[in-house]
Amino acid sequence: MNRRAYPYRRAAAGSVTFGQWSLKSEDGEVVSLPTFIPDWDFQRDLSLETVASVDLDVTRASSGLPPEAELALSVVWSSTGSGLRRLADRVALHGEGTRSVPLSFTVIGRESGGVLSVDTQLVLAKALDNPDPIGPRRAGSVLWRHQSVVRLQGDASQFPMAVVDFKSAGYPERAPWYLDIGPNLEAATMGAVVLLVNSDTPPVLNALRRAEKASYAERLIQSAVRQDVVRLMIERAVTDEELTDTSRFDPDTLGHTLLGLLHTFLPGTSLTSLRMTRRTDPALFSAKIQHAVGLFSKET
To answer: Is the pTM value of this prediction over 0.70?
Structure first.
């Protein structure tokens, strides 16, 4: 196992007491943060809280810091789904003795996805001229650290989803969903793509929210949505003449995702040939995608 070697002294074991993060459920119940939330979707915000206890005297002494050194507890979350990283909470610690520090924050559903990491750190808040030659002196020096990880999604690709009143928003009011795709191929996929679901279509809403717990009929709806999303994404790639088979994009960007979908569902097929098929035989183009995605297949 790899271990990070710090070029300065750190807090002694036991100087910080930290249990684990708790998750406030939608009905107000507080439970321990699980390692996997199988029914999570992009409409669900996550409210986390915990309490840390810091012995300031022991921390400073074991780290080689003078009594006046200012410390802080900070919390940073990051998401593999959105590519975002945010400072969630920060509490300055002054004085002596033991401090009990409540920490809390909320992760907005649309800003998350994939794997959510929560990094809690005790750091040196301000730089100082430390007389201890191996003591920390730079602001932000990490004296203690704890990391929690929770998987919000399985391997299946999901996009941010928003429930919208289509009639009020100006969309065709009997359409069940609408995939909004941004124009910038360099933008993060989770910020460039959102699946809008009509609030007046409860069967579709329930099917998308139930995930693995869906009934057979709901799985058929999921299959239809999945096929349509893949078709629209591939059409987005095909209609962008600036996109080529040799284009290169950073991971998790829209361009990278579009090319990844092409390689996953239509391996060995070039953009040039797809563009030709779509121009000369749109029905065949659509059927190829239905086949590739497995629309209404036995495994649905």
So the answer is: no
